[in-house]
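Annotated sample (chain length 173).
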Amino acid sequence: MIFAAGCLILLAGFLFAVKVSADEENGIALCMEYFLEQFLYEDVVKEELFTYILFHRLFFLLVMLLNGIGLLRFHTKCWMIGLFLFLLSYGWGILLLRYHLKAVLFLVEMSMPQWIFFVAGLFFSGKMRVAWEMESSRKVLEYCGLCIFFFSVGVLTEATINPLFMKFLIDLL
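Output written by the structure step:
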């Protein structure tokens, strides 16, 4: 049931991307293409990129920690995951419409390697929730530390490794 709902949400996001792309005559895709072309010639200031990414990912850390101490209910998590899937499939839809098969490389690059660490942090967030319900404060602190550690490694990876991968892919394509 949950899998089917997730698939429907992904399909809705992709169809919305098709509709918006047709309505705006690929305006969003043209902006994305311009950004990708300019990315080759720009130097990335890693410190500024790190602070930008950290600021935009802090909400994700807050959600992980709130989940870990049991403040997020099941239906809240379902809505958040649904919104995330919709926006993700919308972005993927725009990329696929504009770049076709080349977009698959961009999609893999955009979701790797930082999401490996973010998912690990989310896993320890779930373990923290179980420890919270068992009232084991030592385990809660351990899992909280691991959650924050993996989140931090994910942010560092996104700020340092992703620009290198992106330049390589743009140059390759």
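Annotation: The chain has a mean pLDDT of 76.
Annotation: The first helix runs from residue 2 to 23.
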